[in-house]
Every structure is written in C-alpha cells, then in structure tokens.
Amino acid sequence: MHVHLLQHSPHQGPARIADWLASMGHSYTVFHLDAGELPPRLADGDALIVLDGPEGNIDDAQCPWLRGERKLILQALNGNKPLLGIGFGARLIAESLGAVVARGTVAETGWHRVVLAPLSPVDLPDTFEAFMWHREVFSLPDYALALGRSEASPLQGFTWDGGRVVGVLCHLEATAASVRALLDHQPAPVGSETSPHAQNRAEMLDDPRRFDRLAPLLDRLLSQWLGSTAAA
C-alpha cells in the first residue's frame, strides 16, 4: 500500500507514523505543502494522511495551498480510500463534513487522559494517556461516531463511514524528538500560559516511557484504519 501524507510545517511531521508504515511494508510520500509542493493526485495513492499544522483562523490568502488541500479532502471523503487526519488535519476533515470548528475554552498541551466513548468502534483501551497540542476543537460531524474525550476537550476524535475516515486531536504518533521540535520552533497554542491543562517543557519530556507507551496505541489505530476498506 502507498500512503500520501500532507505536511503543513517543517516541525510537525509524521514522527512515528513514518516508522510504522515502513515496518509494515507500506511505502509513503510526504508532501510539504507549506514549502510550495502541490497536493498529490488521489488516484496515485492508496490512502491519505493529513498531518497537524497551524492553529487559529487561517484562510486561503495566508496559506495558498489550502484550497487545493480542501478539494483533495473532499475527493477522499467521496471516494473509498482510507483518510486520516491528526490535529489540524482532523479539523479540516471535520469542517469538510459540515462540523463546527472553533477555538476551545482552554489550550490543552502535554500529557492528558483520554476516555474512550461508549460507542467508539476504535480498538483502543477504555482510558489511555496521549500527547496534546491544541486550542482549536470541532463538533461531531453528522453520521460520525465519537472516539473519546479528555477533561479539556469533549471530543478527541471521530470515525466516519465505517472507520474509513478517522480524525483525532491527540497525538499518538508523538516522539521525544517530535515534541522537542514543537517546543523549539512552534509557538504554544493561544492561552497555554494560563490554561490549567497546559504543561511546561519539563513535564512534557520528563518520562521517556510515555512515548514508548504510545507506540502500541498508534499500531492499533493505524492497523484498524487501514484495514477498514478491506473489511468493508
């Protein structure tokens, strides 16, 4: 299987997703939209991953690649290939499905507990710890199933069309290196300095085992997601 990944910042890449794809024998191409690369043709790949990116209100004037990316996401939603969005990518997918995307009450950064929704079809533990880096949130799209929630975010993700489409706010792909890149190069989400759900750098990096515990969760999520079309 060949997977296309859409990247929107040099410091918000695929992280452990790239390792997982390679270990499972899948090939992939990363398209750096922020660097001027054009989005791929949907027909040239077997699945599409839309990675995290900028926070806040953005428009086509600020990000000239956004119009083409939205068209590609709509094509993917109307097709039959697996589509996964993380953070900013999940917000774009939710928006394309008619959901409301807006600034949340507080910023949520660092490590927080996610409680799986009762009807969530995603193969994850009932509760698990995940890495967060966001202020923007979205409502549940029509005909979607909620993935779960955290204390600060009532909706941490969703599945749509039998699991073929998945959007997640939290970052199961995070590694110590990817978090350091965020902290070194990206501004924290608005309101992080006053949010009770925002951690400092030391708290985010103090326990390397946290990143190790994300690996099996990512494996379960990606395996189910890529297997959704074959099982349909």
CATH C-level class: Alpha Beta
Oligomer: single chain
Termini gap = 17 Å
Count of helical regions: 6
The CATH topology label is: Rossmann fold
Sheet-strand content, in percent, reads: 25-35%
Name the CATH superfamily assignment: Class I glutamine amidotransferase (GATase) domain
Strand order of the largest sheet: 2-1-3-4-9-8-7-5-6
Tell me, rounded to a whole number, the average pLDDT. Answer: 94
CATH architecture: 3-Layer(aba) Sandwich
GO cellular component, one term: cytosol
Keywords: Glutamine amidotransferase, Transferase
InterPro entries: ChyE-like, Class_I_gatase-like, GATASE
GO molecular function, one term: transferase activity
Describe this structure as you would to a colleague:
The protein has a nine-stranded mixed sheet, with helices on both faces. With 232 residues, it is α/β, with parallel strands linked by helices. It contains six helices and nine strands. Helix content is 29%, strand content 27%. It has a single domain (2-231), classed as Rossmann fold (3-Layer(aba) Sandwich). The two termini are 17 Å apart. The protein has helices spanning 16-23, 66-78, 88-96, 176-185, 201-205, 209-231, and strands at residues 2-7, 27-32, 47-50, 83-86, 101-116, 127-138, 144-149, 157-160, 165-168. Keywords: Glutamine amidotransferase, Transferase.
